[in-house]
Amino acid sequence: MKSNSWRQFKAILRKDIVMELRTKEMVSSMGLYAILTMVVYQIALAEAGESFDVRLVMPGLIWVAFIFMSMLGLNRSFVHEKDQGCIEALLLSPVDRPVIFFAKATGNLIFLLIVEFLSLPIFSFLFMQGRAGYGNPVWLLAVVLFGASVGIAAVGTLLATMTVNTKGKDVMLAVLFVPLMYPLLRAAVGATFAAVIGGPGSVETFWAFMAWVVGYDAIMGLVAYGLYEFVIGV
Q1: pTM for this one?
Q2: 46 vs 52: CA distance, rounded Å
């Protein structure tokens, strides 16, 4: 990235972070949604009894919560930009469109990671009490969280930009986002399951699923990067 582009990137990213620190709309809404989702899960599984191993469904529960939580945050971030005219100002400024994409995606990634890492201890407290968990090092869970969040932020930034000007932006974002997230969701759940359950061959299984996560991030990230210049000007 050129020095001028790097300065533009830092300026846009700093603007997003400062705005979020002032309003706390995106992080607070995602965090509240994640907590409420966990409470619903806990109530739904309360009657399963001690014989039911919640670790078998925990990875899926985590990522379903994170996927829908991310949609809420992505939509909020761009609605806020649209209402204050920030998108129009960026388009009128001499800023390269790919720089806008990288800055917005990086900001979304930071906010997603903050909420995810704050949510995991609560999730473990609600569902892992009295149960043996994390058969592998905990840092493997951090790896899959970061890897999958990169793909969510890249694709989500593109789709949120596309749908922010539509009438049914919430519905349109979900209709486009969830199907495109399926390959990433499948790989992330598999990697999380291997990290949580452990056992023979689990580390090899983990890295096999992580290869899918990295491949998805690379391919879809390049697609989002290539399309963003056309999408943001629509």
Answers
A1: 0.89
A2: 10
| Residue 34, C-beta contacts closer than 8 angstroms, at least 6 positions apart | 65, 66, 69, 115, 119, 122
Contact between 79 and 47 under an 8 Å Cβ cutoff? The reply is: no
Q: Are 173 and 163 in contact (CB under 8 A)?
A: yes
For the segment 85-101, what is each residue's pLDDT rounded down to a tens digit? 677 777 777 778 888 88
Residues 187/185/232/74 CA torsion (nearest 10 deg): -130
**Separation in Å, CA 217 to CA 43, 95, 154, 214:** 34, 25, 8, 5
Query: What is the spatial distance between Cα 207 and Cα 96, in angstroms, rounded to a whole number?
Result: 36
* Alpha carbon distance 180, 185 (integer Å): 9
The residue to which tokens 């943001």 are assigned? 232
